Amino acid sequence: MKEVDYKRQLNRCVRCGSCKALCPTYMEELDETMGARGRLYILQAIEEKRLEPTTRASDKLFSCIQCGACSTLCPTGIDVAEAIYHGRTILRKENRKRRFIGSLSRSSIKRIGLATSILRPIQKLLYPALLRKGIVNPIPEIAPVPFRERFNVYKEGGKRIGRIAIFVGCSINYLYPSLGESLLRVLLRLGYEVVVLKGEVCCGAPLRTFGFEEDAIKMAERNIEVFEKVRAEAVVTMCPTCTVMLKMHYPEFLGKGIENVLDINQFLLDRLPEAKVSKRVVTYFDPCHLRYGLNVTEEPRRILKAIDGIEYREMKNPPACCGFGGFFSINFRGLSNRIGDKLAGYISQTGPHVLATSCPGCMMHIEGALQRIGSERRTKKSKDLLETPIEVMHMVEVIEEAIC
Ligand code: SF4
Ligand code: SF4
Question: 333-347, pLDDT tens digit by residue?
Answer without folding.
Answer: 999 999 999 999 999
